[in-house]
Structure formats: C-alpha cells, structure tokens
Amino acid sequence: MGGEFENKGISIFIENEEDEEDKKDKAKIIFEKLYLDNNLIVERTSEQILFKGQPTIKLSQQESILSLLKEEDLVKPAHDELKKLHFSDHSNLHLAVDVDRGFHFSFLNASNLAKKYKTLQKIQESDLETPLKLFFLSKVDKKTFNLIKQRFIDIFPQIEDIKIAPLETKDKEMPGFLKDYPFIQIKEKNVKHWISQNRISSGMFRTLLQLSELYLCAEGTIFLIDEFENSLGINCINEITNDILSSRRQLQFILTSHHPYIIDAINFDNWKLVTRNAGIIKTHDMSKFNIGKSKHSAFMQLLQLNEYQTGQE
C-alpha cells in the first residue's frame, strides 16, 4: 500500500465542523496503490480509480481507497488490518479522558455496560480507552487485573495497591459528568490517601498503561510508538522492553528509539535504520550495512555507521 496527499499546509489538520467549503479545502489524494501478493489490485491517480484494471464510478478525492472500497473482498482485509493499528500518544497522559465517552459512561445504565463487557475478550475487542478497560476488567476478571497490578508493583515496590474508581472529591469545579467517571488511583506504602490519576508521575502512569495494553488490546494489534523511551526511567525502560519481548500474544510493535538498552535488547534482524534527506524519509534493512557479521555487538557496529550518526543516507 502506498500513496500521497497534496500539500495544503498545516491548516488541513485543524479539526472543525465540516461544511461544503471545508470539504473543498481538504487535501486531495494524488495517488494510491494497493497490492496483494505483489499483484496490483487498486491504482488511483488524480483522474481516476482502477479496481482490478477497470475504472470505478467517480469517488471522493479526499478519502482513501481503503475506506471507499472497504466492502470489496480484496480490499476488506487490508482495511480491517489497518484498523488494528494503535498509535500510542504519550503526551498529556494524565488528561487522557475522552470527554464524549466520559459523558456517555456516566449517563448509560451501569448494569447494561457490565453486560456488554462481561469477559476479557469483550474488553479486548472494544474501542474503550485503557483506563475504562481496566475498570471493567477489575469487575469481571480479577485474576487478569491482579496480574497487571502485581507486575506494576514488581516494577514500583513502593506501591501496594491500584484501583479504578470515581474520585472521592468535593471539588465543585469538576464537571458533573466526570463525578462518576472511574479514574486510575494508586496507593503508596505508608501514605494515607490514594494518589489520583493526575498526580501519578508520568513514568509510572505510562508504565501502567503500557502493561495494561499488553493484556487488554485485541489480538493482532500493531502498536506504533515514537521515541519509546520518553517519560520512562531506566528501570521502567528495561522492564517494559522485556515484557514486550516476552509477550506470547499475537501483537506487533513498531518502535522508534535512540536508547541503547532498547536497541540492544531487540534482535538486529528486526532493526530498521531511518534516514532523512531534504524531506524524503527512508527505512533501510540492516543487511545493507553488514550488521552482525563481526565479533563486536550489533549495537556497537550501529554506532559506527555514518547514517546512524548523521541521520542521513
């Protein structure tokens, strides 16, 4: 699969309610190609879309062929697999509450929700945010919840308990629909009060989310995480990397990193070296650089590459 949008500047990323004028201002797709087993299935240019060599009716120029033709048997598998991509955004983690979902969560009948997410598989296959998945998990599968909790405590031994529940607060400024919303809270040893989600350190909070996602994402999920080490202390980096590598679930991780432990812990056969020249970004197989063919560690060989040092080909 490959393609290119026209460049209309940063304004195309501003989200507003769309009217006809907004739609006209959206970037058009210049070209797209979709292959199956090296056979070209769909080819799109600015003038037309060819499906199995035959032109389709005129379709939206702002929407991908994966969406437009998702009901076609040859296209549907690619569309469905793409939906399994999980983009991990670790900015503003403590504010990671979807307001719309919080609203619906508070006003929907709790027993109906419990019936909907009554098994681990149902929770995994849902599109709920991770804190909400943890909440339902704590209600229906205490064994798995305790596995996550114990692993977190292993990494942070000063923690003795975790709960996901509404905050016990008299804050009058909190929106009414969030008063019943379950937030992650942790209990430290010898500390009387629970520590609320917004007061948990970024490294701790991200570690808990990453651990939880390993158990609570759907089978076949592909995680895309940029600068994997961000916000993580050295103990967290080591432990989370090891947990990812030892996971027996059908998951795939695509990580970018400069951290030596992360790079060295992952077999060099799975490395890709990324270079950028004048806005053109490329990934390179490590076989191109003969990595692993000397007695030195693969990471030490990587450090000597000019492409690694400069980021340019």
Note the topology.
Layout: E1 2-5, H1 20-25, E2 29-36, E3 39-44, E4 49-51, E5 54-55, H2 65-68, H3 76-82, E6 85-87, H4 99-107, H5 110-116, H6 120-125, H7 130-140, H8 142-155, E7 159-165, E8 183-188, E9 195-196, H9 202-216, E10 222-225, H10 234-246, E11 252-255, H11 260-265, E12 272-277, E13 280-285, H12 298-304, H13 306-310
Parallel strand pairs: 6-10, 10-11
Antiparallel strand pairs: 1-2, 2-3, 3-4, 4-5, 7-8, 8-9, 12-13
Helix pairs in contact: 7-8, 7-9, 8-9, 9-10
Reading the helices and strands in chain order gives EHEEEEHHEHHHHHEEEHEHEHEEHH
Question: How many discrete structural domains?
Answer: 3
Determine the strand fraction and express it as a percent band.
15-25%
Structural class: alpha+beta
Distance between the termini: 24 Å
Number of strands: 13
Radius of gyration: 23 Å
Low-confidence stretches: 11-16, 94-104
Helix content: 25-40%
Description:
- The protein has 313 residues and is α+β, with helices and mostly antiparallel strands.
- The chain has three domains: 2-75, no CATH class; 92-218, no CATH class; 268-310, no CATH class.
- Helices cover 35% and strands 19% of the residues.
- It is built from 13 helices and 13 strands.
- It has helices at 20-25, 65-68, 76-82, 99-107, 110-116, 120-125, 130-140, 142-155, 202-216, 234-246, 260-265, 298-304, 306-310; strands spanning 2-5, 29-36, 39-44, 49-51, 54-55, 85-87, 159-165, 183-188, 195-196, 222-225, 252-255, 272-277, 280-285.
- It has a five-stranded antiparallel β-sheet with strand order 1-2-3-4-5, with no helix packed on it.
- A hairpin with a 2-residue loop joins strand 2 and strand 3.
- The radius of gyration is 23 Å and the shape is globular.
- The two termini are 24 Å apart.
- Mean pLDDT is 82; it is low at 11-16 and 94-104.
